[in-house]
Specification:
Helix content of chain A: 40-55%
Number of helices of chain A: 9
Number of strands of chain B: 8
Strand order of the largest sheet of chain A: 5-4-3-6-7
Largest sheet of chain A: 5 strands, mixed
Distance between the termini of chain A: 111 Å
Number of domains of chain B: 1
Number of helices of chain B: 7
Shape of chain A: elongated
Largest sheet of chain B: 6 strands, mixed
Oligomer: heterodimer
Structural class of chain A: alpha/beta
Strand content of chain A: 15-25%
Distance between the termini of chain B: 86 Å
Order of helices and strands of chain A: HHEEHEEEHHHEHEHH
């Protein structure tokens, strides 16, 4: 090797030859680069996130129990195809098609509605999060206090009803809004006949109610 | 005339520093990353603000593709073997040790149990090709998905169920899976999503 020869020249006569302790690292670098490439291609750095949900067990929940929710607190979301979303407050008004309101997944739609209805909890949560950021409270205190706050009796109860036309993304988006707006009680519920009627009625701008009305009139 | 000797400079570069850097990078990649699991279909998960990380072990992943086909993956080999044996018993199919061995090696599975024997006889490349056209039946007529999950649960109590579905999967398919899980009283499960940042003012 070139380096060794250079050293040899420098060595005086009679003196013991000093072998260079230099090791050529080029192959080592080559190998490491290969390994790095392998790891970069075959592994993923991001770990997927998860959302935890707990569904009610099928046998326990009866219709009556579902209806126990106070009308003033209940919000029902109906997720439809083409990323459309509708909501009504309390119990739907079958007479008036305008009880169902169309909104969107954006920050001005669903989120502002939920934030408005859940003002108290959101405010308290904001404060709590700020405290956590300033390291005033520990992570454990944060979780216990946040569950305490979320127990608030005035916070809305959201029922998420997805139609067959909606897709998984809609569902996740709706669930996501619940988390953003710190809503503690929400459930994924199947569409009932009443909801289908409301939706149809809304789409046809009250035609169904009229139909029923005229039907009743002819009968009487 | 004496020749003018041009002193040749050595073109050697000391690679030690370079080697140091690469070793550091290598260590970083080895420690922080996890191996990509082979999945039968590519799914595009929707994003959410949830920051809960997925648990490392004891996962039963339910993969739902955009057409609503259902695949399962179990991360432990012994679980996979036990579940296959139990499923064979339930449906009256006997699996030979070779078949069990082959089943053990693939992390995800998803063929109707009646076709499992012929599926396992295929070579692994053919298996990959066939697998994407199958999927575990999960409808009211034969709900094998339910049997798979409940058998897996019986063999491993600590199993966590996670649903990973494509953004565009129609809701009825998801509902099918969710209600099947509900029927066997699996009421707590995770939905796998990718990360989206929380709006700043929240």
């Amino acid at each position: 090797m070139a380096e060794i020869q250079e050293k040899e020249k420098g060595g005086g006569k009679g003196k013991q030859k000093k072998k260079s302790t230099h090791i050529d690292f080029t192959p080592m670098v080559d190998m490491n680069m290969l390994l790095i490439t392998f790891f970069m291609l075959c592994t993923s750095l991001i770990k997927p996130q998860t959302m935890e949900i707990a569904m009610p067990s099928k046998d326990k929940v009866s219709e009556e129990e579902q209806n126990k929710v106070q009308d003033s607190r209940a919000i029902t979301l109906i997720l439809d195809g083409d990323d459309k979303i509708y909501y009504y407050l309390g119990e739907g008004d079958y007479e008036n098609y305008q009880s169902l309101v169309e909104t969107n997944y954006g920050p001005n739609g669903l989120r502002s509605l939920l934030l408005n209805r859940n003002k108290k909890v959101v405010e308290e949560m904001k404060e709590l999060k700020k405290k956590r950021l300033d390291l005033q409270i520990s992570e454990e205190e944060f979780t216990t206090q946040s569950t305490e706050i979320k127990k608030d009796k005035s916070s809305p109860v959201v029922m998420i009803k997805a139609t067959d036309a909606s897709n998984y993304k809609n569902l996740i988006d709706a669930l996501d809004e619940m988390q953003i707006c710190s809503i503690s009680t929400y459930a994924i519920v199947d569409m009932s006949e009443g909801d289908e009627f409301l939706l149809e009625n809304f789409k046809s701008k009250g035609a169904l109610t009229k139909e029923i009305d005229t039907g009743n009139n002819t009968e009487s | 005339m004496p020749k003018v000797k041009v002193k040749r400079k050595s073109t050697r570069i000391d690679m030690t520093a370079m080697s140091d850097v690469t070793v550091l990078l290598l260590t970083f990649f080895m420690l922080t990353s996890t191996f990509v699991q082979k999945e039968p279909v590519m799914v595009n998960t929707p994003s959410s603000v949830s920051e809960i990380k997925i648990p490392e072990a004891n996962m039963l992943q339910v993969l739902v593709d955009p057409q609503g086909k259902v695949f399962l993956s179990l991360d432990k080999q012994e679980d996979r073997v036990a579940v296959l044996r139990a499923m064979g018993e339930e449906y009256g199919i006997e699996f030979t040790p070779e078949e069990v061995n082959k089943f053990k090696l693939a992390p995800s599975f998803g063929v109707p149990i009646q076709q499992m024997k012929s599926f396992l006889a295929l070579s692994s490349e053919e298996q990959d090709r066939v697998l994407i056209t199958k999927g575990i039946p999960c409808d009211s007529t034969s709900n094998q998905f339910k049997s798979w999950v409940s058998q897996a649960r019986q063999h491993n109590r600590d199993l966590r169920i996670a649903i990973k579905a494509d953004k565009t999967t129609p809701y009825p398919m998801i509902k099918n899976v969710m209600s099947s899980l509900q029927e066997i009283r699996e009421n707590r499960y995770n939905l796998i999503t990718s990360l989206k940042t929380v709006p700043a003012d929240m």
